[in-house]
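Bench notes, bay 3.
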Amino acid sequence: MASTTEEQFRIGQPAPGADNRLLSSTAAGGDYEVMFEDDGTTGYFYALRNRPAPQLLDALHVYNVEDIADRQLPVTASIIWNEPQDAAAFVLNGYCHALYDFRQQAGFCRNAFPPPPQPQEAPRELTDELVDQYFSA
């Protein structure tokens, strides 16, 4: 694992003074960025390319707030990058919910929603085996 960004929050509750909750991380060199957003209704993990011009590459569904039974409890959210910093994952309480591979231009999440913006070779559904391929020691 190359780098980690971490924050604690309550699902569905915006940051103080904001309309949503954002957690973002940029790869070394600044070409790639990922961002998690909880807008009070849903949680999404976004992949962006910053150069030559900012471009949203993918949006990966993480959760619907109303489906989280214990949303009043604080969670720990992390964004982790692999060693070459060409793939990043969104982790809640130690469990990976979404992953984006910038090299393959492929996004993965547990419920495979929404469909990818462009065709990708690998299935959209994120599995523990896939997470291990990117982040095992």
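Next record in the batch:
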Amino acid sequence: MYKAVLCENKIILSMQLRTMKVPAQLHYSSLHLWVKHIENDLWETGITDYAQDLLGDIVFLQAPQIGSKLEKDMPCGLVESVKTSSDLHAPLSGLVTEINESLINAPEGLNDEPYKSWIFKFSASNPEQVNDLLNAEEYTKLIES
């Protein structure tokens, strides 16, 4: 069972010795990706602390290719760990503009700093879809259940 605590503008979930971070300024998909607005229609995304914790030690990352069309909630990449693999699902519709090459070469960065380790950036074709995503409080409730 998790316990939610608000600390320094972040909701923190505690489970025994492990603390789950859920930064308040991000948006979250129910499939455990976070989204951050950069500027204009540009966004970046990565996996949540909760997702990386469930996956365990991440050993491989397949990001969508630059220029790939994203369709909200459709698979667009893959994360593999020593335990399992999981599809990445596009949090919003759009077009991939950049991938984090350093993360492709060292995917363990997703375990170390999931909210600083963006996987790809994209131009949103329908930015209003962000309203369908969860805020930190709603995401916290999702992962608590």
